[in-house]
Structure formats: C-alpha cells, structure tokens
Write a structure and sequence with these properties.
Number of helices: 5
Strand order of the largest sheet: 8-11-14-17-22-25-28-31-34-36
Distance between the termini: 85 Å
Helix content: 10-25%
Strand content: 25-35%
CATH superfamily of one domain: Hexapeptide repeat proteins
Shape: flat
CATH architecture of one domain: 3 Solenoid
Number of strands: 36
CATH topology of one domain: UDP N-Acetylglucosamine Acyltransferase, domain 1
Largest sheet: 10 strands, parallel
CATH class of one domain: Mainly Beta
Structural class: alpha/beta
Radius of gyration: 27 Å
Length: 334
C-alpha cells in the first residue's frame, strides 16, 4: 500500500513542510530511520539524533523545526505539531488500521461462551477464550486469544485484553483455623472494568470478596500484573509490568506505577501520584507527587555493609539523643 505524507496529514492534521507526495514505507526510531521512513522527536535530549537521522520526514514541534530548514533542499520534510509523541501514537494506530484493517467482530469458533453471557455484536472474542455465566463484554471490545472472563464480571466498551488475561479469578482469602490450617473465604464479588481499558498479557485481576474489584475508565495495565481482590484503580492510571497491588488498596486517578512496584493492601493512594519502579509502598499517600523507595544497587560486599548499618540506625539515633542531652545549653543570642 502506497502512503504519502499528504495521506498522513490529511488523516491526523499537523503542518506539513515539504512534498506531500513523498512516499513513506514505514515508521522508525529517530536514530535508525532511513530514507522513505518517518520518525518523531519528542524531547530535546534527542536533538543530536535529529541532526544525524536519515529519515525522510520527522514529526516535531515548531520550535525544533529551526534545525531542519535545509531539509527542503534535500527533498526531505517535517510535520509540525505541538505534541509529537501524541501525534506518533495516533500515527501508529492509523498505520496499523491501514495495513492490518480493523478487527472483525464476532466470536472465534474455539471460544467457549456461557449461554447467559452477554457479548456486544461489535466485540471480538479470540481463539480459546472463555466467558463465564453472567459476564458482559461491551461494544468494540477485543479479547485476544486465551482470555478468561469469570462469572458475573463486566468489561466495558473499546477495551483490549491481551492473551492470557484472567478477569475474575478468586481473590486470596483464607481464615486461619485453630490447628493453623486455612479455611477458604468464598469470593462473592466480581470485577468491573470500565471503558477504554487495556490489560496486558497474563495479567490477573481478582474478583472481590464481597464488593467488586473496580478498574475505572482509561486504565492501562502492562503484562504480568497482579491486582488483588477489592482493589479500586482510578481512571487513566497506568501501571508497568510485574507490578502488584494487594487486596483492598485504592489507587487514585491519573497515577502511574513503575515496573515491579508493590502496593500493600488496604492503603489509599491519592490522585496524580507517580511511583518509581521497584518501589514498595507501605503507607498511604495523601499528596500528589513522585515517590521512590528502593535501595540503590551496589557490589554485594558494600550492600551487605550498608544493610548492617541500616539495621543499627535505631540504636544510633538513641545514642545521639543521649549525647545531645549531655551537651551544655546553647548560649542565648544577644
């Protein structure tokens, strides 16, 4: 399929500087792009790559265009937009639709759908999926291969669930018996997923014990994430791979959680909180901001020494307090 720069800007907008008939073969990273390819510059720290790229066209801000004015004489072009990264995201969607076409609605013959489940006619359900009794799948939602949607769970509109996702497995609930063994607590709630949610491969979202686990509109979850029972995740929050959220935690709207981070149960995270990768959140966070809690990597020998020191901090604090008590009072200022 032949795609020109004119096709791109006609579909997505932006101000084109250069030949609208220039043929574009693919989208490429700035550093490795070649002739016939389009790329983007989203941050000033990559400006050096802009001066070196061989791309035929780059998506950039008007302020960045001063560095490419000579491109016109070379038969190259650029597209000016206030948000190059967002433009790039929309370009990838448009490009995929042009080449692969829209997903076809319907249920794959190998999928197993309970007769009481409700699937919107515009939704697509992939191979080997299972949709249990009373589950509901909204309009234009796509379930990739081997997705499981448990009993009574609800998936909203325009959602994407990648392969291996499990919605509505039992939450981890057990009561201790007198003999130290465990009695199962039946998980009687469900999972409610809002609209425009994307859930990565092999991510698991447990059903609630009594009330439902809730994933609000626009949430984006990466691969291999564990969401415990009765968790609530606010709208447009994004979480990277291998993150884990223990039961009954509440995460606000517009938050981000880095890869491998852990949020302990029954905590509350405010809106607009950003948690660094590998951080363990052990207390509620009431104010927006960036939070980090990780021990810096070091050689094993130095790490062990520092770990020993950390274990002694409480004793050291008490010793300092005792020494401060022995100091003579500070002289009064005149």
């Amino acid at each position: 399929m032949k795609i020109t720069l004119g096709d791109i800007t006609q579909a997505l907008g932006g101000t084109l500087r250069g030949n609208s008939e220039l043929h574009i073969k693919r989208i490429s990273p700035l550093a490795s792009a070649k002739a016939g390819e389009v790329s983007f510059l989203s941050h000033a720290k990559y400006a050096q790559q802009l001066s070196q790229t061989q791309a035929s066209c780059v998506i950039l801000t008007p302020d960045s265009a001063s560095g490419v004015q000579d491109w016109l004489s070379q038969g190259r072009a650029w597209i000016e937009t206030d948000a190059p990264y967002l433009y790039f995201a929309k370009l990838t969607q448009w490009w995929k639709q042009k080449h692969a076409g829209a997903l076809k609605a319907g249920v794959h013959p190998s999928a197993v759908i309970d007769p009481s489940a409700q699937i919107d006619p515009t939704a697509s359900v992939g191979a080997l999926c299972f949709v249990a009794a009373g589950a509901r799948i909204g309009a234009h939602t796509h379930l990739a291969a081997r997705v499981t949607v448990g009993e009574g769970c609800t998936i909203g509109q325009r959602c994407i669930l990648h392969s291996g996702v499990v919605i509505g497995a039992d939450g981890f609930g057990f009561a201790p018996r007198a003999d130290k063994s465990w009695e199962k607590i039946e998980q009687l709630g469900a999972v409610r997923v809002g609209d425009d949610v994307e859930i990565g491969a092999n991510t698991c979202i447990d059903r609630g014990a009594l009330d439902d686990t809730i994933i609000e509109d626009g949430v984006k979850l990466d691969n291999l994430i564990q969401i415990g029972h009765n968790v609530k995740i606010g709208k447009h929050t994004a979480m990277a791979g291998n993150a884990g959220v223990a039961g009954s935690a509440t995460i606000g709207a517009y938050c981000s959680v880095g890869g491998g981070a852990v949020i302990l149960g029954h905590l509350t995270i405010a809106d607009h909180v950003h948690i660094s990768a590998s951080t363990t959140v052990t207390r509620s966070i009431t104010e927006p901001g960036l939070y980090t809690g990780m021990f810096p990597i070091d050689t094993n020998a130095d790490w062990e020494k520092n770990a020993v020191t950390l274990r002694q901090l409480h004793k050291l604090r008490e010793r300092i307090r005792e020494l401060e008590k022995r100091l003579p009072p500070a002289p009064e200022s005149t």
